[in-house]
Amino acid sequence: QVRLVESGGGLVQPGDSLRLSCEVSIMEYIYEYGWYRQAPGNQREVVATISNTGAINSADSVKGRFTISRDNAKNTVFLQMNSLKPEDTAVYYCNARTFAHTYWGQGTQVTVSS
To answer: Residue 1 has what pLDDT?
Structure first.
C-alpha cells in the first residue's frame, strides 16, 4: 500500500515559519523526495528535492528561506519554511520517486496573510 501523508500546513502571517512533514509508506526503493506547490491559477512547481545521496535542489524563490530534510529511520521528509511571504501561499504536495513510479500526497494548504 502506498501512503504519503502531509501535515503542518496552516494560516500564518508574513515573516512566520512553518514546518511541513510527509510520512511515507512505499514498498519500493525511493531515490528522491520532493516538495512541490500549486497556487490557484498556476501550474504545480517544484519547491525543493532531496536525493537518496542527500543532494538538495531548491527553487530560486525559496533559497535561503526553505530547507528540505529527511529522516530515513522514520520514512519522513520535512520542509522547514522560514520568512514566509504572501506569494508562498499554495497547496504543498509531497512527492516520492522510485525507478518505476512517481507518488504524490494529498496536499496541505499553506496560507500566508496579514
So the answer is: 77
- 7: confidence class by pLDDT, cuts 50, 70, 90: very high
For 36-73, b/e burial (b = at least 16 CB within 10 A) is bbeeeeeeeeebbbbeeeeeeebeeebeeebbbebeee
Question: Are the CB atoms for 13 and 99 separated by under 8 Å?
Answer: no
Give the integer Cα–Cα distance in Å for 13 and 112. Answer: 5
Q: Given the C-alpha cell 496579514, which residue does it identify?
A: 114
Which residues, 6 or more positions from 29, have their beta carbon under 8 angstroms from its beta carbon? 98, 99
